[in-house]
Write a structure and sequence with these properties.
about 425 residues; alpha+beta; Deoxyribonuclease I, Chain A; Immunoglobulin-like; six-stranded mixed sheet; four-stranded antiparallel sheet; 11 helices; elongated; Ig-like_IP5PC_F; IP5
Length: about 425
Amino acid sequence: MCFVNCHFAAHAEAVARRNGDFDHVYRSMTFTRASTFSNVSVHLLLSKCSVEQIYVMTYDVLVGTDKYLFSQSAEVMPELSEADLVIFLGDFNYRLDDITFDEARDFVSQRSFDWLREKDQLRIEMAAGNVFQGMREAVVKFPPTYKFERHQAGLAGYDSGEKKRIPAWCDRILYRDSRSAPDSECSLKCPVVSSIVRYESCMDVTDSDHKPVRCMFNVDIARVDESVRRQEFGEVVAQNERVKSMLKGLLMIPETIVSTNNIILQNQDTSILRITNKSGKHDALFQIICQGVSMIKDDGQALNHHPRGSFGFPQWLRVCPVSGIIEPEHTTEVSVHHEKFQTLEEFVDGVPQNSWCEDNRDKEVVLEVRVSSSYMTETRNHRIRVRHCFSSKGKQVDLISLDPKQAQINLLHRSDLQRLSDSYDMVDHFRNLHSP
C-alpha cells in the first residue's frame, strides 16, 4: 500500500501543468527494495508458478544460479505501479470551467453538485485519459473546498474579495487497488480490493482557505494460508525426487581433511595447518576454537585440563586465520605460531612473579576445527593437539611421549612446509614427504 500526498500547479488555466505534475510523480517515484530473499518471496507469491516450480526456483536462488531473480533485485526499483493499493491525496488544484463566481455560488447554495461536477476539470481530464489513469474517486457529495475566507464558517465564507475566485474541488482523494474489473473478488491474484465507506469535507475547519477532505476505506486483503502451503510443500518434497535430491545436497556438510592432528612448537616456532575442501560443488565454512589448555608432566602426559570457554586462545598461541570459507577443491593454510611473552628468569619454580604472566611449563592445547556448509548450522569437527615444549637452552623436542607413527606422519616441521596447489592430493603429499 502506498499513500502519496501531492500539491499540483495552481491557477485555473494550468490544467496541462497539473497533468504533467501527476505524470512526473507517478513515473519517477522509486523506492528502496527490501532484501533479496524478501524479493524472492514476493516473486514466488505473485508469479503463476506451480508448487514444484516454486521449490525449484527457491533452490536456484539459494545456490546462486537464478540470474533472473538476482538481476531484478539488483537493477529494478519498485515503482508506484507495483503497489497493490495506491491512494493519492492533496491539493490537486483542479478548478471549474465555463462558470462564473455567482453561478457557482448559486449552485452550491442549492446543493446542485451534479451539474457542478460536469464543469470539474479533474473529471474531464480523467475521462479523456490525461491524468490519474486507472484510478477512481468516490462520488463527490460535498461543496467545493476552495476558496474560503479564513475564520468564517459556513458556505457564506467563499472568497468575497476583489479576485472572487470561483469555488472548486481542489482537495481530492483518488485510489487504485488490485482490481482489473469492478466485480473482481479478493484473491491471491487480486490481493487488495477496496471500497469507500465515507467521502466528505470538514466544513467546520476555518483556519485555512481550503476545507480538508477525508475518506474512509474498507479494504479486503488476501492472505496465504501457511498451514495449507506447508502441507503442499511437504507433499512435493515427499513425491518429487528432483526436489528431494536438491534439498539433500543442501544439507550435506562438505568433506574436509586436515594435514595433521598433532603440532609441536618450540619458542617462537610456526607450523602450517592445511584444511582441504574435498567437495567438488559446495563451499566449506570453517571456524577454529580452543577447547582447553593442559600442563605436561615430565613423562609427557597431559594433566590439569582447563577449558577455555569463551576466553579464546592462550596468550602464548596465535592462530591465523581462525575462520573462513574454502571453495570446492581448494586448500586454505592456517598459521599456528608460538608467541614469546616471558623469559625463564622471570619465573621461580615454575611460578610467574607477575600476576599477568602465564606458567612456563610445557603446555598443550586442543584446537577444534568446526566445518559446516552454507545452508545449515551442524558441524563436522577435527581435533588438533598443539604442544609447546618450553626450553631456555633451545634443546630439541622430545618425541618419546608421542606415538612413533603419529610423530612420523602427523608432525610438521618448518623445513617440511611447501605451498600446495589447490588440486594437490594431501595424502600423496605426506607419503612422498616421509618416504625413505
